[in-house]
Amino acid sequence: QVQLVESGGGLVQAGGSLRLSCAPSRSSLTITRMGWYRQFPGKQRELVAEISGGFTSYADSVKGRFTISRDNAKNTVYLQMNSLTTEDTAVYFCHATVRVVVNVEGAYVDKDTWGQGTQVTVSS
Q1: pLDDT of 43
Q2: Residue 27 pLDDT > 90, yes or no?
Q3: Which of 22, 41, 49, 50 gives 68 a disulfide partner, CB atoms 3.0 to 4.6 angstroms apart?
Q4: Cα 69 to Cα 27: distance, rounded to the nearest angstrom
Q5: Cα four-point dihedral sign 100, 71, 77, 59
Q6: Which sign does the torsion angle of CA 26, 27, 30, 32 carry?
Q7: Do strands 108-114 and 46-52 pair parallel, antiparallel, or not at all (unpaired)?
Q8: SS3 category, 26
C-alpha cells in the first residue's frame, strides 16, 4: 500500500508564502499525474493544481500565485504558494495516480492515492 507523505503546511500571515511537499512512501513507482486539492470546512474537496506529463493546470483562484512542480526522479510534487490570503485557509491534500501492473502481460490499473492532508492557515 503506497502512502503519500505531505509536509510544509502551517500558519502564515496574509501576503506570505508556504511551500508544500508530497512524496510517496515507496520508490520505483510509476505515477502519471500528481496534484494538490484543498478542502474548506463543510465543503467538498476541490482541485488546486495538477501536473501531468509536464503540463500544469490551476484553479482560477490560485493562478498567478501558486506554482506546482515535480521532481520526477523522486516522484515528489511541490506547491509553492505566494501572496496567500485568508481565503486560502484550508486542508490541502496531495493526490497521485499510481500505475500498478497487475499481470505478467503488463496489464495495469491506475489507482487514486491520497495524502493525509496538511492544514494551511492564513491569518489576517
Answers
A1: 96
A2: no
A3: 49
A4: 18
A5: negative
A6: positive
A7: unpaired
A8: coil
Hey, CA dihedral for 97, 68, 58, 17, is it positive or negative? positive
Q: Identity (one letter) of the amino acid at 11?
A: L
Q: What are 81's three cell numbers?
A: 504558494
Tell me: pLDDT of 67 over 90: yes
Phi, psi of 82, rounded to the nearest 5 degrees: -115, 165
pLDDT over 90 at 12, yes or no:
yes
* pLDDT, mean of residues 114-119: 96
Cβ atoms within 10 Å, residue 119: 11
Reported residue count of the chain is: 124
Calpha distance 39→45 (Å, rounded): 4
Q: Hey, what's the cell of 84?
A: 496567500
Q: Average pLDDT of the chain?
A: 95
User: Other C-beta atoms within 10 Å of 115: how many?
Assistant: 22
Cell of 99: 500505475
Quote the pLDDT of residue 65.
98
Closest among 25, 122, 2 to 65, alpha carbons compared: 122
- Confidence band for 47, pLDDT divided at 50, 70 and 90: very high
Helix (H) or strand (E) segment spanning residue 33: strand 30-39
